[in-house]
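Our preliminary data section would be incomplete without showing what the modeling component actually yields. Below, a chain of 213 amino acids is followed by its predicted structure, encoded as tokens that our downstream tools consume directly.
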Amino acid sequence: MLTLDHLTLIAPSLEEGVAHVRECLGIDMPSGRKHPDMGTHNHLLRLGDDVYLEVIAIDPTSPPPAHARWFGLDDRHALQTAWDAGLRLRGWVARTQQMDAVLAQHGHLLGRKAQLSAGSAPPYFFAIPPGGALPLAGLAPSVIDRGQRPPPIASMPDLGARLVRFTIEHPDPGRVEALFESLGIQHAPQVQKGDALRYRADIQTPGGMKTLC
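Predicted structure:
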């Protein structure tokens, strides 16, 4: 019911996020778009036929929304603390075309369905936990249902980057694997034992194999 859609690097500013990707991958990410409903904006990098990388940050030129932003962006202290600690790839998004069914079973983990606008395109839907936090502090994916909208990857330029491996480190790998199995995730991150929750993406680039975290 859920398939890996994209990886999310959550940045204090879009400039810092793009600079980090440039430093790690040697690639300048193309501009993405603004999210008026959330007061955020992004850059996007294609990583294959059906997965991409997003750098997202608060858009200082947009008015703040009346509700919590997604990806925990309103907690600027926590965001900056994680960024300074080198925890930058902290979110990931899984897609579904059965949002209501997914949330009926897992809404206590993944959040509530929000309808978002996209200019003249049909609306899309995103699951957001209370207060805009990452699901299970980023352990679980955010969930998107694009409805009738075409996947955005079709319009992204191909700069030769390919996701080879997406890995999560966690002190209790068995718990993580059980979570992913219960959610029914296709192409879930590989799980390794580590001291703390941390994501890593191994990406083949025109300059060779690179790592983003």
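The mean pLDDT is 95. The radius of gyration is 16 Å. Preliminary results of this kind motivate Aim 1 of the renewal.
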